Amino acid sequence: MHDHAPAPGGIRGSAARRLLAISLAITAIVMLVQIVGSALSGSLALLADAVHMFTDAAALVIALIASVVAARPADDRRTFGYQRAEVLGALVNGVILIVLSVWIAVEAVQRLVAPGDVEVAGGLMLLVAVVGLGANAVALWLLSAAQRTSINVRGAYLEVLGDLLGSAAVIVAAIVVITTGWVQADAVASLLIAAMIVPRAVGLLREVFSVLSESSPKGVHVQEIRDHILSTPGVVDVHDVHVWQLTRGAPVFSAHVVVDAAALEGQSGRILEDLQGCLARHFDVEHSTFQLEGAGHIEHDAHR
Q1: Residues 10, 15, 18, 19: what is their CA dihedral angle, to the nearest 10 degrees?
Q2: Same fold, 10-212 and 222-303
Q3: Looking at residue 126, what is its pLDDT?
Q4: Taking a C-beta distance cutoff of 8 angstroms, is the pair 172, 188 a contact?
Q5: Distances from the Cα of 60 to the Cαs of 5, 81, 148, 158, 250, in angstroms?
Q6: Cβ contact 66:86 at 8 Å
Q7: What are the domain boundaries of the chain?
Q8: 3-state helix vs strand vs coil in the chain, percent to 5
Q9: Looking at the DSSP assignment, which residues form a beta bridge with residue 291?
Q10: Parallel, antiparallel, or unpaired: how do β-strands 251-259 and 235-245 relate?
Q11: How far apart are the first and last CA of the chain?
Q12: Are 81 and 70 in contact (CB under 8 A)?
């Protein structure tokens, strides 16, 4: 957290958008391969993974659109710009994940309860799953750095991670089908895919709601910030401290700082510079607002 990164980074940079575009191309190709493989092999797990890949492709499209919108400059109406578009895109991703997991679970249970005359070509299922695993690993590697600074890229990253784990589950199921002939392993793999999706989706939605409710960013301790402010020469107290984030990696801070009367008269510029520099260096806060007040002013407010 002590590494200070410039504001234009993360998904707002063109490099992150390029990574999203490449990941989208990989996802779309693998999705088509899995759809064909599912039709030819009769594998529900492959079909579930293909549908998951389809939602991933949609999520990546949403992420790309959100990244373009978020890069638009601020104006008089939207003074913070459009960075919240990333959060809305992540919200859509989370909802898609929840809906997908329910669909997969229902289909898998139906096949387990009434397998009927289901036939699964384990060899083809295995081949397609191995291709999917490799492609997902590449996409995951591409997104791994950018997801640390963008909640929206993180949503896409988590979905690709789910695909990778899903492909691994399909590989195991295919091996079971080939070696034992137990075709229900395909449905079991589908249930595992659904079970892997839900916790990640809930975690993503929790982070989205944290941003929208303007909670303090994860890992930020308000008392620690207070201590840093109070250690600034000339500062005697601090109140009305607020810290929130526009999106992942974009924290915002404001506070009323009580300053010694002598320091307020001749050193207010130096105090402001020290306070803003402290937050930028130690807490990666690019946008901070301080209201400097004399002790008499605070007493007057309290009396009112």
Answers
A1: -60
A2: no
A3: 92
A4: no
A5: 24, 22, 16, 11, 21
A6: yes
A7: 10-212, 222-303
A8: 70, 10, 20
A9: 256
A10: antiparallel
A11: 40
A12: yes
Please state which CATH class domain 10-212 belongs to: mainly alpha
84-88-92 Cα angle (round to 5) = 165
Residue 63: the pLDDT is 67
Q: State residue 180 phi and psi, 5-degree precision.
A: -120, -20
What is the C-alpha to C-alpha distance for residues 158 and 168, in angstroms, rounded to an integer?
15
* Contact (CB, 8 A) for 28 and 134: no
Cβ-contact 244, 289 below 8 angstroms: no
Q: Tell me how crowded residue 83 is: count the other CB atoms within 10 A of its CB.
A: 27
CA–CA separation, 50 vs 53, rounded Å? 5
- pLDDT under 50: residue ranges of the chain: 1-12, 298-304
CB 61 within 8 A of CB 20: no
**Residues in CB range of 55: below 8 A, 6 or more apart:** 96, 97, 100, 159
Cα–Cα distance list, 274 to 22, 180, 278, 293 (Å): 43, 70, 6, 16
Residue type, 18: R
Predicted local distance difference test score (pLDDT) of residue 217: 83
What architecture is the 222-303 domain classified under in CATH? 2-Layer Sandwich (3.30)
Q: Which two tokens stand for residue 182?
A: 């137990």
pLDDT tens across 93-104, in order? 788 888 888 888
Rg (CA), the chain: 25
Q: Is 304 exposed, middle or buried (0-12, 13-18, 19+ CB in 10 A)?
A: exposed
- Among 7, 33, 211, 285, which residue's Cα sits nearest to residue 134? 33
The torsion defined by the Cα of 141, 60, 30 and 144, in degrees rounded to 10, comes to: 10
Beta strands in the chain (DSSP E): 235-245, 251-259, 287-294
pLDDT at residue 2, rounded to an integer = 38
